[in-house]
Amino acid sequence: MDTDFTAEQDEIRRTLRELLLRRCGPAQVRAAADTPAGYDPALWTALAEQLGLPGLALPEAYGGAGGSVTDLALACEETGRSLAPSPLLATAGLAAPLLLSLGTARQRTGVLPRIASGALTAALAVPGPSLSTALALTGDNGGAWAGGGRAGGVQARRTDSGWRLYGQVEQVLDGHSAELLLVAAHAGGFARSRTLLFLVPGDAEGLVRVRRTALDATRPQARLQLRDVAAELLGDEDADVLGALAGLGDTVAVLLACEAVGAAGQVLGRTVEYVRQREQFGRAIGSFQAVKHRLADVYVQVQAARSAAYYGAWASVNGERVGGLALAQALEALRCAAAEGIQLHGGIGFTWEHEAHLYFKRASGDELLFGPAHRLRAHAADAAQLFAGREVRM
C-alpha cells in the first residue's frame, strides 16, 4: 500500500480547504442549510468550476478528471471538516457511479458530462427506512426494501407509452432539490418481481417532493411521492441492479468515513484550542491532567479512524471491500470527538447555537442513515464468515 498522496491530490486538498475556510464558517453553514435548497448554489458552482469536484472520479470521456475513489474521498474529508452542505455525496457519490455502471451509452453521454460540470445534480431514491439496507452495508440487499412485488415501496408498470412509477420514498438525500432522480422500483409483479432503476426528471408530472425535517440539517432529506410518473429505465431489464448497489455501498462507506474523519479532526482541533484559552482556578483547563487524558484518547481514536478511512479508499480501488469497517470506526470517532467537545466547552457547549452540536448531529444522523456502527461490523463479520461454525453465546 502506497501511503503517499500525489502532488495533484495535495493541491486539491489545499485549494479546497482554503476555499471552504473562506466560504463555510459555522454561521455560513447554518444559513445555507436553512435555505430551501439546503445548500449554497454559488458555493456549489465554485466547487464544480474551480475544482471539478463532481467529476473527480468520472472518466475523461464524460468530462471528468479521470480520478479514482481516493481522489473523491480526500475531497470529502475536506468538505466534512467544515460540514459544507452540498449535493456532492448525492450526486457524485451515489447517482453518478450507478449511471456509469448501468446506463446505456446514450444515457451516459447525455447525463454524465452535465454532472461532471456541476450543471446537473442528481439523487438516488431507494424505498425503505435507510440507505444502508439497499447499499448492503448492514445486511444483504435482497430487494424486499423496494416493495417486493407487494403493496408499499415503489412499483413500476410497463405501458404502451413506457414505464410508470407509483409509490413513496421517505429518505432521499437532496431529493427535494436534485434535478434528476434515480428511483429504485420493483417490476414484474409478485411472481417475477425484480428491482430496476429508473430516471425521473425533478420536474416530472405527478412527482411531489417535500423536504423533511432532519436531525442533521446539513444533510437534507426529502420525501418523494410518485403518482403515475413517467420514467425512463436505466440501462436494460437484465441489469444487475442489486449487485451494482451492493458494490456502490462500499464506495459510499469510504466517502462517508473520510467525511467523518475530517469532521472529527476539526471538532477535536477546535476543542483543543478552546481548552488552551479557558481558565479555571487561575490556569488553562487544558493543563489539567484529566482533560489531557480525555483529549489524548480522542486523538488516538481519530488517527486510527483516519488510517482506516485511507486504507478503505486504497482497498476500494484495488478490489477489496472494507468500507463498512472504516465507516464504523469513523462514525464512532466523530461521535466521541463531538461529545467531548460539547463537554469540555462547558456551559456554552450545551447550547444548540454552538457549532459542536453540528458535528454531533452529523455523527448521529449518519449512524441513523448508514449504520449503526455495531451493525456495520456485524455484517462485515458475516460476509467474512468470521464466526462460521462457531457457537456464539450471549
UniProtKB/TrEMBL annotation:
Report the top EC class in one word: oxidoreductase
Please name the GO terms that the record assigns under molecular function.
Answer: oxidoreductase activity
Q: Which SUPFAM superfamilies match?
A: Acyl-CoA dehydrogenase C-terminal domain-like, Acyl-CoA dehydrogenase NM domain-like
Q: Which residues form the Acyl-CoA dehydrogenase/oxidase N-terminal domain?
A: 6-118
Q: Note one Pfam family from the annotation.
A: Acyl-CoA_dh_N
The reply on keyword Cytoplasm is no
Q: Which UniProt keywords apply?
A: FAD, Flavoprotein, Oxidoreductase
Ranges of residues in domain Acyl-CoA dehydrogenase/oxidase C-terminal: 254-382
Q: What is its EC number?
A: 1.-.-.-
Q: Does the keyword Flavoprotein apply?
A: yes
Could you say which cofactors this protein requires? FAD
The similarity annotation says: Belongs to the acyl-CoA dehydrogenase family.
- Name of the molecule in the record: Acyl-CoA dehydrogenase family protein
Q: Which organism's genome codes for this protein? A: Streptomyces cellulosae
- Which lineage ranks, top first, belong to the organism behind this chain? Bacteria, Bacillati, Actinomycetota, Actinomycetes, Kitasatosporales
